[in-house]
Specification:
The structure is a homodimer of 416-residue chains. The first copy, chain A, has 416 residues and is α/β, with parallel strands linked by helices. The first copy, chain A, has 3 domains: 171 residues, MoaB/Mog-like domain (Molybdenum Cofactor Biosythetic Enzyme, Chain A), CATH 3.40.980; 78 residues, 2-Layer Sandwich (Alpha-Beta Plaits); 156 residues, Maf protein, CATH 3.90.950. Chain A is 43% helix and 26% strand. In chain A, the strands form 4 sheets. Chain A has a 6-stranded mixed beta sheet, with helices on both faces. In chain A, strands 14-13-15-16-17 form a 5-stranded mixed beta sheet, sandwiched between helices. In chain A, strands 10-11-9-12 form a 4-stranded antiparallel beta sheet. In chain A, 48% of the residues are buried. The mean pLDDT of chain A is 93. Chains A and B meet through helix 1, helix 2, strand 2, helix 3 and helix 7 of A and helix 1, helix 2, strand 2, helix 3 and helix 7 of B. Strand 14 of chain A pairs antiparallel with strand 14 of chain B.
Chain lengths: 416, 416
């Protein structure tokens, strides 16, 4: 199996100012072309530490992808460190200089000395032009290993990976095929799943690995294997996946590694159904999850973020008497919100959420984390209450997952 | 300076199925009590590799925090690996067993063998009860070093860190004070900032470090220092921060490490102003950013996610003739959306966004990435067009940042 490592350079990750989203994206892309990531390492902009991490990584893997530390400012030292590591001098790359010059011309900005120095690279590297920025991407051969240094700005890195690095890696190595099959379950604990699945798990050949990934009331089951015969591999893994599904059928939400809302969009698109949202405590998060996906507009028409009482009344038609009698976080209000969305936005389905996200606003009756969710269809409405604890962001996320699961259940029920 | 390292264990991060958000959160918390994170390492559920990572980490840092690999299923091996690493046997921890038993009783679920085994721990560790789950937290003294193993489920880890680990670390070591001061700038490139700030940067004492963090049209400037005298340290760093601000005043958005939307909420709350949103291509993302923040409801009343033409008309009062004559992505439509939000939601400010997020829907005239944004107040409306390229998620994020920056500019302008 061809192994890679990812090294991210920059203090911002180590002081927690920035979440490293690059590595997961890169790992997924590498996996898709048959390369396994052995380790991800985040280090600071410190020359000795970068060299230590690189030395260690080269002992474990043949491909090292480095991001970050290529900006024009003094704190960025990656390329000088690489020159030291490979024992190379620096040269000015003419193609990069021309690219940088054009870049500034296009945006009508003056160029200064530090911009020109962006064209300086270790003299033994292959330069790959960065179409979206001024920091060049640098490719080094080192014995049998390949080391690539890329900017840490996500969209510059993504473009370089897709257009340049992944195609070159595919050409450089004879790569196997890696296959993951994921099954999403809900409403069952990890240990009970494992008990139900023990028979199948014990029968798995050593080449196929089963993992359990729990998250906020859901557990993802993942079967992983690699090989050279793509057809055969898929067939074998999928057959075991079907055995797993058969054992825990009532808890299976989606037999695919897609997000809940994507599964909803797929089903509703096929059935030509439309959806709207009426959100209070989730504050637009459900709408955001849905609208992340290309093509969602054929299903999702829109919705309301009705934080204030007045907006619950004016946009969704919740009765003032309902709000005053039962409060915003109640079965009555969330039901009227869902029915109001169906009526006002003219959709086949709607989902409404009203709860106390916290940290304030809780009462003895309705503590922080109390959330009412309703799903309405043209036929009727189902409402449920949840109790999610006292962390605001987690309440928002758990509410969204519960709401999406309720829509999926309704769709599955509707199909029976 | 007291150094720590974070090791995350689990294949899900290395195959890119999960983004590691735990590490950034932990790093921020550690920093806040005067501990610097030297390295973050992600490794798979592999015994030898975990031991290699732990051995290397112990050479660089005195505190090692490990997350993940503590579930009840076969793929989770962290505690057995730790027992091997520390050369310890396993024992059944009675307090944990009681906790696990009560946990299952409370949720009315049967307990199975694998749940009971959650109470098994390496016999030389101190067990810290995990109030939110069944996997115990384990604390090991190893010579002068401290190694802690925690579950990877974010809210279990966060609770343990806040309630147990951070207080114990503060007690175990005499920690200095770490101070970061962040200044957010917009509409100026990193290299030009550096040129303007060169004089101040050169005058910084070696104990104060300046970093530039660019992201989607913004650059964060961060001054960092550590010391024992908190007052003195803050005074010194803040004085340099003021020198930086003075040099690039027109580009400074916020003099604090807070999100744009939080800066808006703070200003509007103080001035008793209200805000609503009217989103098309951002699909609720701006509303979500705002409603992440506790206390937002005194400023933010709500908004519309108007994806379909019909909803732009019915919720926001955009004229059908405007949509047919100019299209949804136009100055006219976005202006009517913003004014409609002010009128229908009765707020002092509103922001409206309409664009082509992609990947489909672009034309020669209006390619993917074309986004119109309008900010309305009781006095009038300002609209601008942007061109953000062809990545959907990035378009959504850049649109939101541009919209929030326009609100802040309007607020700053209003104050003049």
């Amino acid at each position: 199996m061809m192994l890679a490592e990812i090294i991210t350079i920059g203090d911002e990750i180590l002081i927690g100012q920035v979440v490293d989203t690059n590595s997961a994206w890169m790992a997924k892309e590498l996996n898709a072309i048959g390369i396994k990531v052995k380790q991800i390492t985040s280090v600071s902009d410190d020359e000795d530490h970068i060299i230590e991490a690189l030395t260690a990584a080269e002992k474990r893997a043949r491909i090292i992808l480095i991001t970050g530390g290529l900006g024009p400012t003094k704190d960025d030292i990656t390329k000088f460190t690489l020159a030291r590591y490979f024992n190379m001098g620096m040269r000015r790359d003419e193609a990069t200089l021309e690219h940088v010059t054009n870049f500034f011309k296009r945006y009508n900005r003056p160029m200064i000395e530090s911009n020109i120095r962006q064209a300086d690279v270790p003299d033994g590297c292959t330069v790959i032009l960065n179409q979206n920025g001024t920091a060049p991407c640098m490719w080094f051969g080192h014995g049998d290993n390949i080391i690539v240094s890329m900017p840490g700005v996500p969209f510059e890195m993504m473009y370089l990976m897709e257009e340049e690095i992944l195609p070159r890696l595919k050409k450089a190595f004879d790569l196997p095929f890696i296959y993951h099959k994921t099954i999403l379950t809900a409403n069952i604990g990890e240990s009970f799943l494992a008990q139900e699945l023990a028979g199948v798990e014990d029968s798995l050949p050593p080449s196929i690995k089963l993992a359990y990934l729990p998250k906020l009331g859901q557990v993802r089951l993942r079967l992983s294997a690699s090989g050279t015969d793509e057809e055969q591999l898929k067939k074998e893994v999928d057959a075991y996946a079907q055995q797993l599904v058969a054992k825990v059928k009532p808890f299976v939400v989606v037999e695919d590694d897609i997000a809940l809302e994507k599964a909803i969009l797929n089903i509703m698109k096929e059935r030509k159904l439309t959806l709207s949202t009426a959100e209070s405590c989730t504050g637009g998060y459900i709408a955001h999850l849905i609208t992340q996906h290309p093509g969602c507009s054929s299903v999702y028409l829109g919705g309301a973020v009705a934080y204030a009482y007045e907006l619950k009344e004016s946009i969704l038609g919740v009765k003032a008497s309902t709000l005053s009698e039962f409060g915003a976080v109640s079965e009555q209000t969330v039901t009227e919100m869902a029915l109001g969305a169906i009526a006002h936005f003219n959709t086949d389905y709607s989902v409404a959420v009203s709860g106390i996200a916290g940290p304030d606003g809780g009462t003895d009756d309705k503590p922080v984390g109390t959330v009412w969710i309703a799903v309405a269809t043209r036929k009727g409405v189902t409402a449920k209450v949840f109790s999610f604890g006292n962390r605001r962001l987690q309440n928002i996320e758990r509410s969204a997952i519960a709401a999406l699961t309720m829509i999926l259940n309704e769709l599955n029920h509707d199909a029976d």
